[in-house]
## 1
Amino acid sequence: MKKPHIPLETLQAQAMACHACPLADGRTNVVFGTGNPQARVLIVGEAPGKNEDLQGVPFVGAAGQYLNELLAYAGLRREDVYIANVLKCRPPGNRNPLPSEIEVCTPFLREQTRTIDPLFIVTLGNFATKFILKTDRGITGLHGKLYQTGKFKVFPVFHPAAAIYDRRKRTDLEDDFATLGEYLLQEGIVARTPQSVVREAEAHARAQAAGAAVPGASAAPGASGGLEAAGLGDAPVDSAPGAVEPAAPESSTSHAGEQESLLL
Ligand code: URA
């Protein structure tokens, strides 16, 4: 028989009362997770930092600001997704999570995932990716591709904090979130992305040019071209990455590692 899903409020109350590892002694707040409890996209980070510990909310510092920008590349807003971390309490000095901490804390993430039941899980950085995909492979070789793990489509990317001072990683992250947007478009999870808006505007302009080339043909109504014509004049196209190949989620999914995911 299938285990019932535990309500997020119950899990959060359990996490707030948790003293299973020494991180509980140094915390200001448990950072359980926030966002849309019905999200089709779950974002998984590593562990709270200083600001997150103080506010009890994930990704509110510099990495969080950048994450918000990255979501827009995929046609997502922060309120569309649910955001959680591998660890719910801040490791001192932002050091890496210890295996023992991951072991005792990840039952929360596992149950959160079962309850939210997303279609996509976006893993930020090595710790989230290794836990969700149950792989020893590093993020450098895994990012930007879709992996099927059980019922979930897992999309690993670099951690936004790693890209703040590294231009090359920024480019990778922005390209990867644009690729994610293509997958989300195909699944009908987002209606548009900055790239799809550009594509529509270009198609519109081509149609207009073709119409204008036919003597006597009148221009299509509202065919002024550009983003305004697509009804999306305020989309962040200036910072949009270049076009990506159309994605083919099912056929291009890969299988990372031999081991089964803990989320199965
Ligand atoms: N980095 C993370 O991995 N999680 C946060 O919540 C903040 C920074």
## 2
Amino acid sequence: MSVKHILLLPGDGIGPEVVKEAEKIIAWFNQNKGTQFTTSMAYIGGIAYDKTGTPLPKETLEAAHEADAILLGAVGGTQWESLDYAVRPERGLLGIRKELGLFANIRPAMCFEALADASTLKREVISGLDIVIVRELTGDVYFGTPRGVETLPDGTRKGVNTMVYTSPEVHRIARVAFELAQKRNKKVCSVDKANVLECTEMWREEVQKIHDAEYKEIALSHMYVDNAAMQLVRNPKQFDVMVTGNIFGDILSDCAAMLTGSLGMLPSASLGAKDKNGKTSALYEPVHGSAPDIAGQNVANPIATILSFAMMLRYSFNLAKEADLLEKAITEVLAQGLRTADIMQDGGKKVSTTQMGDAIIKTLAVLAKKEEKAA
Ligand code: NAD
């Protein structure tokens, strides 16, 4: 493997603590699995504002453009809440997504066997669950115009947002979903509301077109969003990859993610278009925020961030075997009963952030040895 550069953006709150554990894992792969990752660090969010007066400094953006992939912790905190909107920590995150053209958000919902009883759903519904939601991030009612609120001559108020998609926007997100399905179980369900919204009727037709022209080997189905929400809690294992627009994806991905339990366990990826050199911008981050209530206490769960690195191995570097090994190590550590406070259960052994990272590394070493012996 050639040298690959990872930009680390720890951010605020628990961000630096969880990214530090992922950094240890990156070093382990370099020392033991022949990967050649280099890393550098830059400021984003509240800390960037404190140091430079902006939540997304020019240097950070330049480093982001140059990196092969980005791993972000989290941004935000109470000390920045009174700032003007334009310089709030969260602006840094929205800004980097926009500047890198990250239009595809990928969120897996995976059930770790040892945590199956922690879900609010019955064990048999979620045991073995492994699905992915692909959400379009840059279009839809969040960006469409006209938008706004006006007061009419009779004194009543009117609020307007506009759902907009163009066929190229649908094509590129559909391709992300089909490509992903090719590396998985070859099933895509496209979610829309084609029975009442013309915009999503067009979405359905365009997804079908891309399928028929380029991805015939994938089983494509279409589902209305209300049914999809119902099916996600009734029988989520029927899905493999779901693809949908920005607003439906916002709601469905939170719903799917929480099928499996704690925020501290949920990774995500945001991908951009291929540039002229064939490089795809990619930012990986845990779904959770900066958790100011527990920051600096060495109690945060680093697994969401470490799983985000596993996604990076799989999707940015095509290192599926290494990603599998890392996910297996996490499964094993959970099976041993090790728990950070957020996922603590009766009979579990409570560990700190750093102890969880260390335990995953120790297990990686054991699994790697076993693999070597078996080979
Ligand atoms: P949050 O995700 O930070 O925390 C919600 C709850 O979950 C808290 O009780 C927290 O302690 C717990 N939690 C979160 N991650 C955890 C982990 N890894 N291990 C253990 N417990 C964990 O959400 P919030 O409290 O609504 O927001 C706090 C700050 O984070 C705000 O400033 C918000 O704007 C920001 N935020 C940032 C992002 C991001 O950077 N992507 C996402 C959401 C919120």
